[in-house]
Predict the structure.
Amino acid sequence: MDDVKQIEQFLDKIKAAAQSGCFINPDMVYANLIRLGRRVINSRYINNNFLDWIETFKETANINVFEGDYCQDFCKFVNDDYNVITPYNMIKMYIPVDDAHISEAAKRIFGFMAQNKMIHHSKIAKKVRFDDIVIRVSDEENAKKIEEFVMNDAYIKEGLMKPNPFAFNNGYISYAWDGELSFNMVVASYISGYINELKNNNKLDTVSYKGLVTYIGKIYDAVFKEGKYKDDYIDAMKVEEEYQLDNYQKVTELLLHSLMPGKTTEDFFKVYNDIVLEDNKEKDTKTYISEWQKENWNRIYEFLVKKYGYEETNIRIFKFLETGNYNLFTRENNIRSYLVNNNFTEDMVKELYLLTTREKRDILANASYDTYQKYGYAQIFVALKNAQLGNYNNFTNDNKGRYTLRSTITSGEIMGLILGKYLENGYDIKDIPKVYDEMIREYLNQLEKRKKSKISA
């Protein structure tokens, strides 16, 4: 069956669900999408192989295989040096293998990659799906070597299932690029939007492959070429940060190419080179953070706070930003090894900390600014000193500042939120004053600049 027919059948399935009253959203579409072409022989579960793979590769050079408390849905296979390539640029390969073959297939594939010292960041899901083996590899040359190896191994090829019809593929292996996003979730989001638009206009009977391509194309033109409906797009696609729109644009452009009939893997490499590599050559090396990294960091931060409290947790994090010493993190729940194995650099931890504390950081800054504007320097200085002791009485309650502080922020968080504001404003961790009084004075200087900028505006 060709890709267009498979896509038509999948759209008909989602249409039928919509007609039966099922709520259609990206998560629902995604859950069905990853099961496309799935073949289960003995069990849909793969994770009974995780410990065997870890044991098999524990003494193998150029690969690290692990499963931690923060990646239970996947077994990770990693050999990456982020000085060689930005993870954002990596090519994504989906190798769908059934449950009967995946144990040995994984050993052969990753053994071959380790032998050839390939840079990659890969994983295997705990259940059979059309993306159960995902390889993120550093370049086209290595991707082609892996494809050639798989296609010439009779045992692996026997276990291959149908590829992702929405992606470039050779009939067995699929190719995509998604930066810090999930290609398949972006596909699911567009399908969800397409189906719901037709349902809202009583046109579900017109669902078709061509209709989906037209729908995505119109959105691409309106949002990314004409600059229209950006806020609507951010809301509909659940875009977390506005800077990610560039990532969505590239994935959407690649998706439109991958939906064309007769596509080949050579077409993928051409599109990848044009959209991703050429466009990124002149751009800076921004620290890109994936959704799974954000989610796992949030769990780690919550665990650290429960173990140490906010103040000690933040001290350890800031000390890590200064020294890069992973021993500042506990071994419990494999947190230290998880951060090391997943190459959580100082820059990455800084960005993750800023994301985690952004809302509270803004609450403190707004309450401080309102107090400073109303009562002046002396009172807000005292207010911030007393806040570290748990006393918020010196803050104004204008805009519910004092109330919000009391209800959301503990005294142990205050210093970390002040330090976070420094980092947000571009300070190096080593340049931030160490004495609390001096730290407050410079923090207030930043409020003074904010006041002046508002007046000049």
User: Anything to note?
Assistant: Residues 346-375 form the longest helix (30 residues). The two ends are 62 Å apart (CA to CA). Residues 401 and 407 are 10 Å apart (CA to CA). The longest strand covers residues 74-79.
